[in-house]
Every structure is written in C-alpha cells, then in structure tokens.
Design brief:
The chain is of the alpha+beta class. The protein folds into three domains: 139 residues, Nucleotidyltransferase, domain 5; 132 residues, Orthogonal Bundle (Helix Hairpins); 139 residues, no CATH class. It contains 19 helices and ten strands. The strands form three sheets. A six-stranded mixed β-sheet has the order 3-2-1-4-5-6. α3 links the parallel β4 and β5. The protein starts with a helix and ends in a 7-residue tail after the last helix. 25% of the residues are buried.
C-alpha cells in the first residue's frame, strides 16, 4: 500500500517526539493549566496551574516541573501549547527564549478529540491540557519557529492593515446609513468615501443645506479634488434631488447630527492616512525580499497584494506544493465521498481568513489579466455560471503558477499558446455574456399597460 505524503509527515512528527517528556499547556487569561506526559505517554503527577505573571513563569512553572519530572533539559523535554486566541503568544515566546522546543496544537484538534476520552464531551482545563499533550505525542502539531525581523514586521503590518480596513469600512457604512436616513438620494449620486463627497459633507448634509448651495463657489474645488471626474453637473444633480428628497425631518436635532457626522468624517480621514502610511511601509519592506519581483510580474497581482501575500505566507520557499498554501488559507476542498455517493464539494474555510480573502482578491484581478487563470475561469463559466465558485476554482491555477515561478526562480512570461487558447474561449464567452446582459435588461423593463 502506497503511503501518502501527509501520512509520512505525520509519522515523522510522531517519531520526533517519541522518547521525550511532553508538557501540555492549556493557556488562559489569568492562569495556564499544565500536565506532564512521560516517554510512555503516561501522565506524571497531577495537573497544575501557574499564573500569567513574572513569578508564575520564572518560579512556579519550574518548581512544579522539578517536583514532577526531576531531571530534565532542553533535549528531552518539550512544551505543547494550544493556540487559543492570542493567549499563548507570551508564554511561547518565553519558553522559546529559554531554549526549549515548543509545539503548537490547533484548538480544533483539541475540540474534536474531547469525546475520544471515555466518550465524555465535557470541557475542563486539566482535560484540555492533557489532550494538548496527547495530540502532540500523536504528531498532531506544528513546531513553533522564529522568523526574521523583516518577515515578523511585515506580518504585523499586514494584520494591522486588515484591522484598519475593517474599521474604515465600518465608518463608511455608518456614514451611508446616516445619509440614507436624512438624504437618501445623495448616496445614489456619490460614494460617501470619495474625497469629493467628504468635502461636500463637511459643508452640507441636509437637503435644505444642499438647496441653498451655490454651485459656482464649489465647482472649481470639486473639479480639482475629483481630478475632473465631477463637475457642475454633479452638483446640479444633488441640488435637484435635494428639492424632492424623502429624507426624514431632523428639526431640533441638526446640531447634534452635525457633530456626529463631523466625528465620523474625522475618523475616516485619520484611518485613510494611517492606511496610506502603512501601505507604503509594507511595499517598501516587501521590495527587499526575494520573491516580491516574481509575484509582481504576474498580471493581476499588485505591489500591495504581493506584500500582503508574502506577509501571510511568511516564507514562500518552505512550501513544497501549492496545496499547502490552499490548506493554510482554508481554500482547499472539503470532500464528502462514500461508496457511490459524492457530496457537494465546498471550500474548507478553516484557516487563515486574511490569506483566504487575499487569494480571492488576487484571483479576481488575475482572472481579468492573466491568460492561464482566465482560461480556467471562462471554462467554468461556460459550463455553469457562478462567479464566486469559479473564482475559487481558478485560484488553484494562480497558486500553482506562483509556486512554479518561485521554484524556478524566474518572473512570469506570457505564453503564445495560452493567448491563442484564450482568444478561442473569449469568442465563445463574449456573445453569451452579451446575451445574458440583454436578457437582464429586458426583465427589468416595466410591462406596458393594456390600452
């Protein structure tokens, strides 16, 4: 029977921890719970807890281990820690600095292994600590490692960038909801997040205000801010809509609402400035890394997405197969096949959500400009129309392409055969696309009243 690569890797991990003492730790906010398993997978002594303080780390932990284990060193003792939220980070960093090997156990592994112990579904800290140690003994772990300072900095910036973008989107939604209540027609004319809209909302926000707006006073300013995209016709349209707005009356609330809107606009500007600064720093740092030029050479991958992709993958050179990246992101398929039954295939969704979202964005752009990715996307679209599913299906082509370029250490080059194949598919796809749009427009047209 042929052994799979996954099985062999699991076997290697299992063999590595054999003959070692494992300290399983279930991290918490105030106190960490620990249990010790000897070389034969037998629990030694009782489980114990130690505080998340200097004294807990430097005194109580080692006193308990001295009493239970006796003689130990960095060669025969390893720590297994559950990666629950961010409660494990300080402990893992401390143990790593002490020279010990630290094994990270996924919380889902602990969760699914609870009923295996005496068919008991209960959750307690001592039980979870024992399960963490047992799973590490079975090879269900990944080893903690320290990355270079540049990679760590880029990863931290990527996490912060993602949080700032979420905050920015939350502010946009607040402003949209606000304007949708007092002047709903405004959000149909201008996107609230663009600079032109922010400039106008700092001056006016109620329909009564926009009715009194003098177009000539703002025309040149709006034209300059929008780089010519918005002119007097946009201002005129807003003014006309203000005359017949269905927004609610805010009599007696105007000053309060003005304060609220000004606060949100100020918050949006601060976030936009922080995002711009962070984006520049990320790209500057990523340019110093070896795989940046390779990623940017692929059509559809921008400098920002390349920098974020490197940050989330940490070390692209360590990946042997593109499916490892998919599994890390959770974009790999979850199969449900048994006998003659074949269930619906869906993406796993369990993994790095930032990386999953990033792969989706990269594939959306690559499906427009990259021949190999677009070929896969169009083939799927011709078979069955489903944009989101077909984008995820085409993401495998993009990941495979990136891994090939990294292994060969070269930038992307367009192949003539790919262009010819794409042209044939485009000839089939475009007429169908036009017909679909025509059918949609015909459905939207109102029915003529009978004479």
């Amino acid at each position: 029977m042929k052994k799979t690569k996954g099985y062999l890797r699991s076997l290697e991990r299992k063999q590595w921890v054999s003959g070692k003492i494992i300290v399983g730790i279930d991290p918490a906010k105030e106190k960490h719970q620990a249990v010790v398993l000897d070389e034969h997978r037998m629990q030694q002594g009782k489980s114990f807890s130690f505080d998340c303080t200097y004294e807990g780390y430097n005194q109580k932990l080692w006193e308990k281990l001295d009493a239970i284990v006796g003689k130990y060193n960095t060669d025969n003792l390893v720590f297994a820690v559950e990666t629950a939220c961010d409660l494990w980070r300080t402990l893992v960093e401390y143990l790593f600095k002490q020279g010990y090997t630290v094994l990270l156990v996924n919380p889902l592994t602990t969760y699914h292994s609870r009923p295996l112990m005496n068919s008991d579904y209960s959750k307690t800290d001592p039980k979870d600590a024992l399960l963490v140690a047992t799973n590490a003994h079975n090879g269900n772990y990944r080893e903690y490692r320290k990355y270079s300072s540049s990679i760590s900095n880029l990863h931290s910036m990527s996490i912060n960038y993602n949080k700032l973008m979420k905050d920015r989107q939350a502010v946009i939604l607040r402003i949209m909801a606000f304007m949708g209540e007092v002047f709903p027609e405004y959000v149909k004319i201008l996107n609230v997040e663009i600079e032109t809209s922010l400039y106008l909302l700092e001056q006016y926000f109620l329909p009564d205000h926009f009715q009194k707006m003098k177009i000539k006073e703002h025309e040149m300013k709006v034209r300059k801010i929008s780089h010519g995209n918005h002119k007097s016709d946009t201002l005129q349209k807003i003014k006309e809509q203000a005359k017949r707005s269905i927004g609610r009356s805010v009599e007696g609330e105007e000053e309060t609402l003005r304060l609220i809107l000004d606060g949100w606009i100020s918050e949006f500007r601060v976030l936009a400035k922080s995002i711009k600064t962070l984006k520049k720093a990320m790209i500057g740092l990523a340019k110093e890394m070896e795989h940046f030029e390779i990623l940017v050479s692929v059509p559809g991958i921008s400098e920002l997405t390349a920098a974020r992709f490197i940050a989330e993958c940490r070390c692209l050179a360590e990946f042997v197969h593109y499916k490892q990246i998919e599994k890390m992101a959770g974009s790999n398929l979850r199969l449900c096949d048994s006998g003659t039954y074949a269930g619906t295939r869906r993406i796993n969704g369990i993994g790095n959500k930032r990386l999953l979202n990033l792969i989706y964005i990269m594939t959306c752009n690559a499906a427009k400009f990259n021949p190999e990715v677009r070929i896969k996307f169009i083939r799927r679209q011709l078979k069955k129309r489903s944009y989101r599913k077909n984008i995820f299906a085409a993401s495998s082509v993009l990941m495979r392409l990136i891994m090939c370029l990294i292994k060969e250490k070269r930038t992307y080059e367009i192949r003539d055969e790919a262009i010819k194949e794409l042209e044939k598919l485009e000839a089939k796809y475009n007429p169908e696309k036009k017909d679909r749009k025509r059918r949609k427009r015909s459905k939207k047209k109102p029915l003529k009243k009978a004479a």
